[in-house]
Design goal:
By secondary structure, the chain is an alpha/beta fold. It folds into three domains: 204 residues, FAD/NAD(P)-binding domain (3-Layer(bba) Sandwich), CATH 3.50.50; 108 residues, FAD/NAD(P)-binding domain; 105 residues, Enolase-like, domain 1, CATH 3.30.390. It is built from 15 helices and 22 strands. The protein is globular and about 65 Å long. The chain starts with 5 loop residues before the first strand and ends in a 9-residue tail after the last helix. Bound molecules: flavin-adenine dinucleotide. Flavin-adenine dinucleotide (FAD) binds next to β2, α2, α3, β3 and α10. The site of flavin-adenine dinucleotide has 38 residues, from β2, α2, α3, β3 and α10.
């Protein structure tokens, strides 16, 4: 048996740690270098902490709806923000401990320190104990990203928050100005509006959630409006009029000033590519600093790969992990190409939003003659039973071939439902395939069968 391939992975987020475990399972000699906490942004400052807080406010929301459900609670139902934050931290820790255990089980070595490339096949790590050099046959860069910090705002001010510092708040702000109505801004708005914060969102684009179907985004904006969240579209922040000790005042387009206790800047991410030694071997980056890769996830330098947020593809945890698996196959002699045609997009607001494949406009832009089928959750027995009947599911199909092209949905658990459509799109299934499949009753999932029937104008439960 030959020597095991030595793979060094810089960064232990969902890209790096998944790559590490898979590479070890395939017999490689693997070291993961992590400067902070295993699990990366996702587990410590992103996906999981936000979902933990959303879990808390969803429970709070249900408890407050006792009269509708037929129960009363003695005493006040009041949020305990300190406990919510503790719970969030506990969940992250449980999952982090899980990765440490998986590393142990799979014999993945962890070096805690800051890694940087130091010439061909060399990674230098600065640890608490000093500097050590790791030799590698293959290097995978998985250093991820961090909140974009426009020079425009002074992030040293305690009133200016990024998604990271918003997850470390010790008290609920009375008012919050959110710059950017993308996924992260909307998730934070969902959390804090339920906690009683007065929220104003400012978005440059003509719709909230600019990557989602425009009809869905419009309905969603109506739901936010009913919650008392003010959303200003096609509006830019022109500058900060005042950084007070306990408030901030921003000038927004149209001559308006908005004052809030805190301001959350959620306008995107920037790659962690500074000071990681890319220049020592000549790894190419693009104009925004993201590492350029081909669809085998190779950089321009032989034996150096880049996965996840740092390559600027689709900045999602499940994409980072998928890319980790692809890169490992290629490190170990395979020839796998990244395929990002079917990536579910999920937004964990109240209600949730999910989409995959093409929406109606995108399908038309790609030359299809799309046809859609829709099912409103107001007619779903399960949605009514759980008191969450807001929203709908919509399937988009090719009218010529009946192939499923995509779906977009809003409502309870749609982030779990979306995978049925992901499987359909990836495998060229037809609307008939979905419509002919028996879906359990009563479930939210059966809405997809109804929407499939509706594509053919034959939904039994669609009124008009
Ligand atoms: P990261 O998770 O950023 O991990 C990179 C790791 O590398 C970090 O641990 C970092 O400490 C380490 N590192 C960096 N430089 C070095 C160095 N020089 N040496 C050693 N270690 C280094 N995505 C979803 O799919 N679903 C969601 O619900 C979701 N919610 C999100 C909510 C928020 C608020 C945010 C900010 C992001 C969210 N994301 C979500 C995006 C998701 O977190 C990222 O896409 C994902 O974490 C990217 O994984 P990664 O492994 O590429 O990088």
């Amino acid at each position: 048996m030959g020597e095991a391939t030595r793979i060094v992975i810089i960064g232990g987020g969902p890209g790096g740690y998944v790559a590490g475990i898979r590479a070890a399972q395939r017999g490689a000699d693997v070291t993961v270098v992590e400067k902070d906490l295993l699990g990366g942004t996702c587990l410590n400052r992103g996906c999981i902490p936000t979902k933990a807080l959303l879990g808390s406010v969803e429970a709070l929301h249900k408890a407050r709806a006792g009269a509708e459900f037929g129960f009363s609670v003695a005493g006040e139902i009041a949020p305990d923000f300190t406990r919510m934050m503790e719970r969030k931290n506990e969940i992250s820790k449980t999952l982090r401990d899980g990765i440490h255990a998986l590393f142990k089980k799979n014999k993945v070595k962890l070096v805690e320190g800051r890694g940087r490339l130091a010439g061909p096949g060399k990674v230098e790590v600065t640890t608490a104990a000093g500097t050590e050099t790791l030799m590698a046959d293959k290097i995978i860069i998985a250093t991820g990203s961090e909140p974009a910090r426009l020079p425009f705002f002074d992030f040293e001010q305690p009133t200016v928050l990024t998604s990271t510092s918003a997850l470390e708040l010790t008290a609920v702000p009375q008012s919050l100005l959110i710059i950017g109505a993308g996924v992260i801004g909307c998730e934070f708005a969902s959390v804090f509006s339920e906690l009683g914060t007065k929220i104003t969102m400012v978005e440059m684009m003509p719709q909230m959630l600019p990557l989602e179907d425009k009809r869905l985004a419009k309905q969603f904006q109506g739901i936010f409006k009913k919650k008392g969240i003010e959303v200003l579209l096609k509006t830019k922040v022109e500058g900060i009029a005042e950084y007070g000790a306990d408030h901030i005042t921003a000038n927004v387009e149209g001559g308006r000033q908005i004052t809030a206790e805190k301001m959350l800047v959620s306008i995107g991410r920037q790659p962690n590519t500074r000071d990681i030694g890319l220049e020592t071997v000549g790894v190419e980056t693009d104009g925004r600093g993201y590492i350029v890769v081909n669809d085998r996830l190779e950089t321009n330098v032989e034996n150096v790969y880049a996965i996840g947020d740092v390559n600027g593809g689709i900045l999602l945890a499940h994409v980072a992990s998928y890319e980790g698996l692809v890169a490992v196959e290629n490190c170990l002699g395979g020839n796998v190409r990244r395929d990002l045609r079917v990536v579910p997009s999920c937004i964990y607001t109240m209600p949730e939003i999910a989409s995959v494949g093409l929406n109606e406009d995108q399908a038309r832009d790609e030359g299809y003659e799309p046809v859609t089928g829709t099912f409103r959750l107001g007619a779903s027995g399960k949605a009514l039973a759980i008191g969450e009947a807001q929203g709908y599911v919509q399937i988009v199909a090719d009218s010529k071939t009946d192939k499923v092209l995509g779906a977009n949905m809003m409502g309870p658990h749609v982030t779990d439902l979306i995978h049925e459509i992901a499987v359909a799109v990836r495998n060229n299934l037809t609307v008939k395939d979905i419509g002919d499949t028996i879906h359990a009753h009563p479930t939210i999932g059966e809405a997809l069968m109804e929407a499939a029937h509706d594509v053919h104008g034959e939904s039994v439960h669609v009124a008009g």
